[in-house]
Amino acid sequence: MGPVELLHMSVFSQSFSPCGRFLAAGNNYGEIALFSLSAALSPDATGLSQKPVLTFTAHEGPVFSLLSTDCHLLSAGNGEVSAWSWTELIKKNVKPLWTKRPNYKSSLEIPEINSMTINSRDNSLIVGGGDNNLHVLDLEHGVFKAVLQGHSDYVHCVTMREREAEILSGGEDGAVRMWDSRTAQSVHCIDVYKYESCARPQFGKWISCLTTDSDWMLCGGGPSLSLWHLRSLSPTSTFPLSGCQRQAAFYQDMILAVGEGPFVSHCLLGGDVKAQIPCSPQSLNTLQLNTNSTEHRVLTVGGSSAHIDVFTNLSYRAFSLSF
Amino acid sequence: MSSDALKKRKSKVLRSEGGTPEMKRGRGDGDQQVMDTAGRELGQSPLFVANDARVYSEEVELDSRDPEQDYLQYKESCESLATLMSEIQELKANGAKEGCAEVEQRRMQSCIHFMNLKKLNRLAHMRLKRGRDQTHEAKQRVDVLHLQLQNLLYEVMHLQKEISKCLEFKSKHEEIDLVSEEEFNQEAPQEISRPHLTKNDPHQLTLARLDWELEQRKRLAEKYKESQATKEKIQKSIEVKKEHLRSLQPGLNAIMQASLPVQEYLSMPYEQTQKQTEIARHLPPPLYVLFVQANAYGQACDKNLCVSISGDVDEAKALSKPPEDSQDDESDSDAEEEQEKTKRRRPTTGGQLDDKRREMLKRHPLSLCLDLKCKDGSILHLFFYYLMNLNIMTVKTKVSTSTDLNTAISAGELLKADTLLSCLYTSDQGRETPNPANRYQFDKVGIISFADYVEELGHPYMWVQSLGGLHFPSDASEVSLSASHMESTMKLLRGRVQSRLALHKQFASLEHSIIPVSSECQHLFPAKIISRLARWTTITHQEYLELPYIRHVTDAGLAKETDLYFMAVVERGTARLQAAVVLSPRYPEISPLFSLCLSWKGERSGRTDDNLRAMESEVNVFKNELQGPRPGHQLLTNQIARLCVCLDVYLETEGQDDSVEGPREFPREKMCLRTVRGPNRLKPFKYNHPQGFFSHR
């Protein structure tokens, strides 16, 4: 990887290992890098420990989504999902356990996979991407068992509402759709851009970030990031963030959001922006909190740079991992 | 002020107090004694002693008198005087009248005693005088004797010195190496050795041996003279023979001259090569190595390589004549050091330093010229110089082209001698001297950096040193021969000139806003490109650094001082795309790097806008498909053409705000499968050739 390639690298996805000691990150060249958090966080860390312990090419296209199950790392590339064993990866054995491809109708261009989520109720993987549909992969049998159709443009993000067994998806068409995972039917559809409080016509109507916590939902993208009450299906607060948000997360009584602009935004549920913490990439694509291990409890963010910023404390950037 | 000091002072005072009363007492005693004696003398009646010598001489009398006797007499008369006085007193006390006979008689007697005392006093004085004279006499005699003694002692000392000098005397003959005694006895004739005399007398033996030595030396001197004479004779004969040979030279020259037309006719540049090799003998070693290698390479592999020597041959000859000069510059530098040491004490003037600098940077009078012809007729002239005192080689370059290049302003830098060969090998800028020893030489004469003299002396590139067989411990590569560099370097040189000439041509058309796309590369771009190159200018490194949207490039260390910088402006309608270009001197091996900034509905750059970033990577990262036919001289123009295509796509796929009425500024003409894709909503920048649609990477 030459310096020019490094200069034009973007990090799209991250996932922590089940043990919490490793971080996997995927970039726009289809590579996945494995960083050792325990080495990087140890007191005698050197510049070398901020480099990946393992880098391998997983897919042809960019790796837009990474997901960890109990023992597997799932990665999404250009129209395909691959599974890798964490134990083998840590031993630096790079061989996918399996690679699956949803049944796409069109053949001219392979649709990308933008987002994946696990439905732990029936151990299935929900995959959303470029063909406007959600595909449900049964992880027990390894077959695609259902297709959720409804979006009129490609799907940006998928998330799961565990308690209600609901799947939520946001797309380029500006709609947040809620699906019943049991019947595979669309339950609700919210056109976020139609709500005046969140609409930002100068950007567009796509929904690129979506996350839920019990009865609450965060969504944003072209429209401003907003907090929704799902029972009443109404926006409760809108966050005055300037750019388009790519990923958001609930953290304790706060909301962390990243997107355009070189900072992590800390928002209060009431709708105020509490702080914007600067970081090195000019725009951010991904944000991940390590909850798997107490000693390596960090926040990592990646974006339009070869660096992944690590926050040991939410209020400042500690150091950067780099490809 | 301690109590001790006080005590001391007190004790002093006490002592002095104690001293004075004693002194007083002593003095008082003395006074009393004087008074006593006076009293006694006065109170004594003199005893008269008659002296009836007719011829009176007291001195004669003195001899006959005994001082002891006189002393007794004195005592007697004093006593009788005292009794007389007391008798008078008694008489007077008893009421004797003034002038009565008894008193009168006694007075007479005492007068006689006084007379006697006077006489004794006189005698005592005379005796004292005589005693003094006698002492003086004796003393003079002692002095004379003492002087005599001293003289004698000095004489003794002098004689001793003389004796020791004599003992220490070293004869000259002791230094002469004489033949051993046995040898002498065997070889020396009887009349010299005189065995009967010398057998027992070592002195005579030595004398004899010395005689023998003298004899022998005389003989050898005779022999030396003879040899000298024969030598002279032989030299004379040599001289005569030389003269004869010299007289042959003009004849030979005439023959050579006469044979010239024949040589030309047979196309055998016999003499020319001979002349060149003759001159080459005076080349310094590195240039000679280069000369031989280049000649060999030219003959074996590259007919378009031409080597020639220029410069003042006589001066070079003069340089190589004194052997100690050309032998090693170590002694030179030693002498310099010494000079420097003495100089340091004196205040150095600027003029002296200047002279020293000039001396240090002096180059050998001969230089080597390599002409490298390219296929299109342009020639790269390389002039190699050798700096004698620094022991490095430098090169100057010149390009002469077959066709007159129409002047492109931005191409000015391209064929400049200064930058033409910069970084031929990685990071070989040729600005600093590759010889680490030079650092110390520079310190002495106050040269800060060799870069200041590069203009005048040429560039000391590493590859130049390698070609000349000079190796310095600092370069990491293992020692290799000049020959192993020759081919690769010549190829690189030719490649460099060709790429520069190609760029030169491209720049000329770029400045007229025409992007030359060759037929081989036509398939890379759609037929219709609406965006136009509006401007192509050169900018300085400083100007580049001041641009706000290149921070990431400089942070990654990809914008070096040796690179060339350009600014391209692509326009379509109201949109204006600025592209700052870093062109490495090693182009096309290292591809140009574009950084973009679009002003359209506000300002955005590759750092903030993902799509512009994608356009950057489209030209910077996916450059391999843009290289065109080998060796990829069309890369730059293809990159610019692709930039125009990408700008078209960018503008045509920009989401239209529904609320704004009226027709779109940029109607969609390009065929795209999807306008956005992925989480960062990238536009389709990849052109698929036969079908003619755009897709995502």
Tell me what you see in this structure:
The complex is a heterodimer of chains A (323) and B (697). Chain A has 323 residues and is mainly β. Chain A has a domain at 112-128 and 138-238: YVTN repeat-like/Quinoprotein amine dehydrogenase (Methylamine Dehydrogenase, Chain H), CATH 2.130.10. Chain A has helices spanning 3-7, 37-41, 86-90; strands spanning 11-16, 22-27, 31-36, 54-57, 65-68, 72-76, 81-85, 98-100, 113-119, 124-129, 134-138, 143-148, 155-161, 166-171, 175-180, 185-191, 207-213, 216-221, 226-229, 234-238, 245-251, 254-259, 263-268, 273-278, 284-289, 299-303, 307-311, 319-322. In chain A, the strands form seven sheets. In chain A, strands 1-2-3-4 form a four-stranded antiparallel beta sheet. Chain A has a four-stranded antiparallel beta sheet with strand order 5-6-7-8. In chain A, a hairpin with a 4-residue loop joins strand 13 and strand 14. Chain B is built from 23 helices and twelve strands. In chain B, the strands form three sheets. A five-stranded antiparallel beta sheet of chain B has the order 5-6-7-8-9. In chain B, strands 1-2-3-4 form a four-stranded antiparallel beta sheet. The model of chain B is unreliable at 1-51 and 323-347 (pLDDT under 50). The chains are: A mainly beta (323), B alpha+beta (697). At the A-B interface, helix 1 of A face helix 22 of B.
